[in-house]
Amino acid sequence: MRVARDVRVSRAPIRPIWFDAFLVGVIAFAVFAATAQYHDPLNNDAHATAVAAWQLAHHGNATLTAYQGQFPWLYPVDGRYVTNRLPGTIFWAAPFYALIGSSSYPPIYPSALAAALASAIAVGLAFALCCRIASRRQAAAAALALAFATGTWTVSAKELWTHGPAQAAVLLTVLCYSHRRWLLAGIPAGFAILIRPHLGVVAVVLGVAAAVRERSLRPLLISVGSAVGLWILLLYNHAVWGAWTVFGGYPDSAQASGHAVVEFGVGIVGTFVSPERGVLVMTPALLLLLPGCRAAWRVAPWWVRSATLSGIVYVAVQIWVSRFSGGDGFYSYRTPLEGLTLCVPLLTIAWREWTSTTRVRRTAFAGLAAASVALHAFGSIVDWVLPGPNHSPWKTYMPFDLARHIGGLQTTLWLCAAVAAIAGIAVLTWRTAARTPAATEQRPASDAMTA
């Protein structure tokens, strides 16, 4: 009697999530590195941070007396000049200067590469995080939208701001948090405090939310790493400023800004709709995602809700402690970037649960997403002049000012290309959009197991 042989169907091995996250990060880094700012004029904040990173890398200290009058944000303390830039970003950029920077004078390009890499890491982490709640295709779209349709491209990846390292730190915190690795989540949360001290509210909200949900004190272990970060910050500020302070050289300027309730309300409105710094103005794709947040909240995993809540609280604190416009010398918005980054998982679910459920919404979203990318590509690729210090965020619209600055022919070409791309993407989406809502798309089982 013959026994039939087993027929085995060979399947190509599914790539691990982290491999695809690496590829997404590499794509982002390639674009970021190609469009970063490698020459003057730099924003004062970024320039002062870069000089401090170079000084730390090549001389092992924070003394910048030799550059007093040449660079901004230098203040006299105990007979020497130091910068009031916070240490986290300085620590991040110092290895770049140690490896590739000149020891005779602080160049710009290592700081630009440091900013580009930090932002690219954030994009890769956003992909890995979104793979826990969506298909890899949707996760890639969400991560690349964070990269190129928001101020991540024109701020975080452009110069050595605090935002690129901060975005990477909070996303890594949430990634560990989503796996219930409470103690491990505290490490990037502590580093986030070194970058922007008020990011400590993110760890507080995450820890308390998880402790309430789990009915356990174990999630509060996230505070261990946060406390270490806070302690390092205090030690750094004591060594540099001679005082046990959290904000180093910032308190005087923060107190001078005033914090009336009316100003806070104006800041909330301005963060969303002011012509120069409005999130909804410069990233109009959010207009087709925000209406779906209610539906997304109902089905979102616990950690997505916690991350979103922490992002909202952080933005509120940020607006309270500083003006919403975030200063001058950059294109698009920057102060809400960390909060928006923390909301990416919920916005991804919002797309699936509401935006993608009709053909019209999907098409409109595709067009607005293309417009969001076009707006940021315009500011990231074209050289432009920094606006003056006395302009109003309620009267300045950066794309218009930039178009007026660079001239007619180049502006016309950019505008024609943008309109053609937006229209083409919208038409393609309309023609290829499936009648079945994308909300029914099932995530591969392998993704669910390995995410």
Please render the helix and strand layout as text.
Layout: H1 17-35, H2 44-59, E1 74-77, E2 80-83, H3 87-100, H4 109-130, H5 136-148, H6 151-156, H7 163-178, H8 182-195, H9 200-214, H10 222-241, H11 251-257, H12 261-273, H13 279-282, H14 293-299, H15 302-321, H16 337-342, H17 344-353, H18 359-381, H19 398-406, H20 408-432, H21 445-450
Antiparallel strand pairs: 1-2
Helix pairs in contact: 1-4, 1-5, 2-3, 3-4, 4-5, 4-7, 5-17, 7-8, 8-9, 8-10, 9-15, 14-17, 18-20
Tell me what the structure shows:
- By secondary structure, this protein is mainly alpha-helical.
- It has one domain.
- 63% of the residues lie in helices and 2% in strands.
- The chain has 21 helices and 2 strands.
- A two-stranded antiparallel sheet has the order 1-2.
- A hairpin with a 2-residue loop joins strand 1 and strand 2.
Please give a quick description of this structure:
By secondary structure, this protein is an all-alpha fold.
Features:
single chain; about 450 residues; mainly alpha; two-stranded antiparallel sheet; 21 helices; 2 strands; disordered N terminus; disordered C terminus
Strand content: under 5%
Distance between the termini: 47 Å
Mean pLDDT: 88
Poorly predicted sequence stretches spanning 5 or more consecutive residues: 1-10, 252-258, 442-451
In total, the number of domains comes to 1
Give the number of DSSP strands: 2
Structural class: mainly alpha
